[in-house]
Amino acid sequence: MSAPETRTASELADALAAGELTSVALTQAHLDRIADVDGAVHAFLQVDADGALRDAAAADERRAAGSPASALDGVPIAVKDVLATRGLPTTCGSRILEGWVPPYDATVVARLRAAGLPILGKTNMDEFAMGSSTEHSAYGPTHNPWDLTRIPGGSGGGSAAAVAAYEAPLAIGTDTGGSIRQPGAVTGTVGVKPTYGGVSRYGLVALANSLDQAGPVTRTVLDAALLHEIIGGHDPLDSTSIEQPITGLVDAARRGSEGDLTGVRIGVVTELGGEGYQAGVLARFGESVELMTEAGAEVVEVSCPHFVHALATYYLILPAEASSNLARFDAMRYGLRVTPDGSPSAEDVMRVTREAGFGDEVKRRIILGTYALSSGYYDAYYGQAQKVRTLIAGDFDAAFERADVLVSPTAPTTAFKLGEKVDDPLAMYLNDLATIPANLSGVPGISVPSGLADEDGLPTGVQILAPALADERVYRVGAALEALLARQWGGRLLDQAPALEGAR
Amino acid sequence: MPEISRDEVAHLADLARIDLSDDELDHLAPQLSVILESVASITGVAGDDVPPTSHALPLTNVFRDDVVRPGLTAEEALSGAPAVEQQRFRVPRILGDEQ
After folding, report:
1. In whole angstroms, what separates CA A232 from the centre of its chain?
2. Which of B15, B42, B92 lies at the smallest CB-CB distance from A313?
3. Residue A44 touches chain B, beta carbons under 8 Å
4. CB-based contact A469:A441 (threshold 8 Å)
5. Is A80 part of the annotated catalytic residue set?
6. Does residue A159 contact residue A114 with C-beta atoms inside 8 Å?
7. Using CB atoms, which residue from A211, A309, A383 is nearest to B52?
8. Whole-angstrom Cα Rg for chain B
9. Tens digits of per-residue pLDDT, A33-69?
């Protein structure tokens, strides 16, 4: 495993610093890998070879001059297609934004550029991040590198698959109800949803403003911490951005990797397990809890009684916010415009454009949101959902009195077959059962690979949640679990993934 | 149990400014009924004494000094427009027949 694309971002950064490798060579190796395998995986909607190599050359010059821009200067990255990239098309997986080239960078993207990370391209996603399988992309689904007939999770299946298939050492995802963590679980990779407000949303095309959060998609916990420290921190362009520096995450990951959890109180959430969860997922979860106990953690069972209402709460709040956000796609200022025959009004043009430009799931959620916000139903649905959101936050508060972190399986099942749930919205929504409570309450969470399910040999993940602003805890405990499992496996879970066609 | 009729879906699509074909209405209406039936389970979960939460973390108003900052040029702002005329967004007539 000496090919550069199989090494971790942290190792690659060390090799670049030591002068053993150039960013141009490293970036080219990933572009070659994309050319080899992305026909089968379809993780990318757009590859920017010229831009990435240009940025890589600049990174090499900085390294040669002894003035790297950051620890990860020259390590390439893939970016989910929901973040605006100046000069590089940004579609959100939708026809309505096909070919749109943003005139500005999202803050996350600007920080990546400032830190010297060459951007390989934009990754596939469910349209406007609505989905759990990437099948709602208008540009075709992404395939799970473990089994190309299965889904890579969603909405950020492209970012997770790119990292799992060694097409990129790092990627950016966004998580509104689990879109970073659930793809991580089903592809055997690591995904982190930071505390709400910890990473700027400026330039992130909004799905649900009060829930959206961008974060790292990586193969190791340490890599996620390194990336998180680069993209995180206060941004005056996002009024919900937390006015605190992001520090201590890399240190927490390094400390955790020693595998000692003495004195850490781990809460197993009663409501996030049992019925609806695949046996193999629960078996691997139980073993992970056992390992953490052996490493010194104190395990307590905690009940969060209102979590059973989280899914319903989410599917009222999210469509309400999304239907408002997507009203901006009016065919006037950017994006698709379809003009019907005759002498249509602006409103006629808008109706026809939105019919042509939005896919089924987007239409479903816009209509659901319009319903939930309409007079006569507002109090019964949206108002009630906002109240239940308060109760769910209260459950978290009570649970974190008794435990430093909470744990559960990340997703209730392993990756299912492409096409299996695409026209059954409710079955699709159930994939986010365990990840949604964190978004409703703004708390940070990580998904760490926990093994392969016995039934199908596919990856499963463990989710670790911490109180708001205590992101370092998910890194410490996540890195510890990762290290404990790696000792058992004699390597990373991804080492067990089958080789992809075309792999050299 | 809340039911959502085909006519109601058509009305909501109208409010949301999306044309839906007959096929789409046939397809979406029953799916929306199933979803609504499921989310309606939260009715009555929270009593009147529970305050609503709109954001996960408490928000305060954010102010900044009223100073000029660099922004998009007119060309950049118009770069994604479907139609442009005289450095402006060109749009269809804005009044409908009934206005």
Report:
1. 15
2. B42
3. no
4. no
5. yes
6. no
7. A383
8. 23
9. 999 999 999 999 999 999 999 999 999 999 999 999 9
